[in-house]
Each structure stands twice: as C-alpha cells, then as structure tokens.
Write a structure and sequence with these properties.
Helix content is 25%, strand content 30%. It is built from 2 helices and 5 strands. Strand 2 and strand 3 form a beta hairpin.
C-alpha cells in the first residue's frame, strides 16, 4: 500500500531539514493521493522542477515507490510558475513543495532510463 501524499510530504520536509536545507509546502493538495511536484531553488535565480515520473518508469517489483522526473533544470521562476499553473489546471489536487538549497539537492528518488 502506498503512503498518503500528506504523510510523504511531511516526511520529505523533515528529511530536507535534517540535510540542512529549508523546505515548505507552497500548495497543499489532496491528502490521500495528490500528485507531488517539487521545486528546488538554487538561490541564484534559477530552480529545478520535479514531478511524478511516468508510469513506464516504475518497476513491477516496487509499484508503490514514489519516483520523480526532472521537468525543468535551472529554469527561471516564471517558467516554473507557468508549468505549475498548467499542472494545476489539469489537476487541482496537486502538492507543491519548495526546497531552498545552494547545492541544488532534491532528496528525491529519480527515475532512470
């Protein structure tokens, strides 16, 4: 069984703080199953944007894992806001979590391939 979005976000934020980064929920989505998007602010005017990995990236042996894909790399905040706006129009239940980290660490499991 997959952990709820609300519980996953709470644990994710704690992990970022433990690693020395700042994290905050920018938009609260559906507590049970809202898609999660993560913004990593490099604190230099650029951000990375991560969203749920496509279903084809999931391993059949671990179908409940949360995997992410980088949607935007070192993009400006306006481009990120436009993409999040588009995602919100498609699905109003999304979560947006923002991490501030000069090293650009996302603390996410990234889909490969």
């Amino acid at each position: 069984m997959r952990v709820t979005s609300g519980l996953w976000v709470a644990a994710y934020i704690r992990r970022a703080f433990v690693e020395g980064a700042f994290a905050a929920v920018v938009r609260r989505g559906s507590e049970e199953a809202g898609a999660i998007f993560v913004v990593v602010d490099w604190l230099d005017g650029t951000v990375d944007l991560y969203g749920p990995a496509p279903q084809t990236a999931f391993d059949d042996s671990k179908p409940t894992d949360r995997l992410f894909s980088r949607i935007g790399e070192r993009i400006d905040r306006l481009a990120m806001q436009e993409r999040i706006g588009s995602e919100t129009r498609f699905d109003s239940d999304i979560w947006v979590v923002e991490i501030e980290d000069r090293q650009g660490r996302s603390f996410l499991d990234i889909a490969t391939g």
